[in-house]
């Protein structure tokens, strides 16, 4: 450190091609090398990638990361029986897809179509605020508190459901890789249910509602 | 060009108060001065200077949107003129999420293959430079929050010099001893040479203690032109009226008080000395 003025942060006009305008300056003054600078820069994203859950947020990148992490785990279990990593992973993923598809088909024929074209005939619209897939800053980052933009509605719940809520929130948080509030989980759950009418119908039938015809 | 961050390891030592006083003094010296508020707290420079910026409008353009490369307009449009002869780039509530937002922006840059060019701790400097801000001002002063983190790192990386208010207590003096190590840590993290323009014992109780504290700081090799006495009435008045100290004395005091004039003179001297050390 210097007792007095530090180096001039705006010493040189930024050269177009060089991402680190100060590297030369540092080099001259402190004998630091490009290599050092680049190394630090390369390390950071890798570190983040290595622990996808630490900063996990409801965005697509994370989904992808979590999925590939899952894939790896399943791959490890089955690795000994397969020839190459690539085929194992491929097989695994297509198996997963097939499993998901058949699940959907057996339970409900329309569900597959729903997931494919959400926005076209979905009951609920896309959220009005920017999401992870948009260019803007996702809503969870720009809101000041969990109640912002939300209207309070009353829900009447029986005890056994209320009792399950905390565990539900924990399970969602675990899967997501980051803590999430009950308020967020509730809305997400309700929204998810709107994409899964059949599941909701099943619940209601289990409670004793019967079809009129 | 003179750039510095008001910095102290502990909170509440007077970063914002002393910073505002220095900003006012630099401006009174005829310099073009910009203050940047990187503190998301309500009791920050933006509040003290009574600048009515839309700090809780999440849709409005603000400093953070620029830091994460999602601006909605030009940075110049975010700059407010204060009543005290200098400009302010105000704080915004989005600063509360700065760390998450920078991480996210880093990932997006990575996805685009531009990850190497995105340095989350050097964003502010980049943004200011890209907007040509350094060409428009003689002095840039940044007020960071009390805690270490991306706000402080961006501030220090963009200024590379520090002015350090020191609590005139045994503990405060102890922090001066730890300063070298701390600044070394910042230098390593930011890969830049960091300088200490001045340490300022602030809130000294008795005159007799003043010289002792100054000596101690100077012995460690830091420039320390003045110590500021305990002036609660003056500085609390500034916070109450939301203004800078010279402005306060001028508009809210019916008669001049010698001890307050003395403090204002010291601040003026400190500002002048900082300008000198900073090479203006
Ligand atoms: N020399 C002084 N004499 C008396 N009071 C002072 C003096 N300097 C600052 N204060 C008071 O100390 C309080 C804290 O000051 P300030 O907010 O500037 O500290 P800070 O370091 O910016 O705090 P934070 O770390 O929270 O940002 C304020 O109420 C201010 O009026
Ligand atoms: Mg402060």
UniProtKB/TrEMBL annotation, chain A:
Protein name: Uncharacterized protein
Compositional bias of kind Acidic residues: 11-28, 59-75
UniProt biased composition (Polar residues): 105-122
InterPro entries in UniProt: DUF7970
Pfam families in alphabetical order: DUF7970 (PF25925)
Basic and acidic residues biased stretches: 29-51
Stretches the record annotates as Disordered: 1-136
Lineage top rank: taxon: Archaea
TrEMBL record, chain B:
AAA domain ranges (all copies): 8-192
Gene3D superfamilies reported in the protein's UniProt record: P-loop containing nucleotide triphosphate hydrolases (3.40.50.300)
Pfam families: AAA_31
Protein name: Plasmid partitioning protein Soj
Organism of provenance: Natrialba taiwanensis DSM 12281
